[in-house]
Amino acid sequence: MEFTETFDATEPTHRLVTRRLSGVKDWDELGGVTVENRTIRVLMDYGTVVHLGLDPKHGQFETVQRELEQVPESKCIFIGSDHEFRASLPEDQALVESVLEIPDGDTDAWTDRLFHLVEFAVLTDQSWLYRSVPHEAHIREINAGRHEGVIEKLNETLDQVRGSAVVPFSGLASWTINGTTYDLKWDSLYCSDREKGASYDLERLRQVTVLFPENVLHLDWKPVSEESLLRRTVWRVLGSESTTPPARVEIPAGEDGKKILDVFHQLREKLGYEYDVETSPN
């Protein structure tokens, strides 16, 4: 997500991520919208202003139009925004929260929250702090560079929320061995060389065994037969490399290799992945 050229071009430092847990709805305690709303409430304590891009189809559009200042086109921060509103904090926080909330099972409110709330941002006097495109779950970006203690507070808030975490925007671990580059992300292991690349979902991972001093990861993945019919069909049609994840991955020696192992542990702890992690000296 980017702002208009006249606004702050600072890159994100972190992102909010949430796994899609089986049987969990967006409005449930562990659901994506509820988790984002909890995060936003924390961040609004640090912010001074909220900007909302709203579609006129939104159920609260007239209320927002009446209660909040509409941002003139010359001062909009969202690219191509038709109806952008500005809320002051903390004065307008209750109204902002009412726009964000989804009453349990209210599908109309769910549609408003994900599709008719087009863009959302929390700003401070110095910079932007949070920005989101609600219908794009991967765009939940945080700029904590000028705000000491923000990430620690968010970690504290999300510690007991299974399946959600704040992670570095640039990724968690990356290394290159024998011409192959590996990127360990919050939800996948991406492997690439000069000719091709493939991404393997960590949801499929059953066990990580680290062998020292060989500096090798042995990865045990769920078989293709345990994947959903839809995913298997897509892989068959596309001939996807992602159907055959690597069983053996080399890692750097020393502290760099140990950091990669730490990331697997952290992901398991913070996001609730079910794979096991073992270390073998042989």
Task: Describe what you observe in this structure.
This protein is an alpha+beta fold and about 280 residues long. The protein folds into 2 domains: about 15-170, no CATH class; about 175-280, PH-domain like (Roll), CATH 2.30.29. Helices cover about 25% and strands about 30% of the residues. The protein has helices at about 30-45, 60-65, 95-100, 105-115, 150-160, 230-240, 255-270; strands at about 15-20, 50-55, 70, 85-90, 115-125, 130, 140, 165-170, 175, 180-185, 190, 195-200, 205-210, 215-220, 250, 275-280. An 8-stranded antiparallel beta sheet has the order 3-4-2-5-6-7-1-8. A 4-stranded antiparallel beta sheet has the order 9-10-11-12, covered by helices on one side. It has a 4-stranded mixed beta sheet with strand order 15-14-13-16, covered by helices on one side. Strand 10 and strand 11 form a beta hairpin. The longest helix is centred in the C-terminal third of the chain and has 17 residues, at about 255-270. The protein is elongated and about 65 Å long.
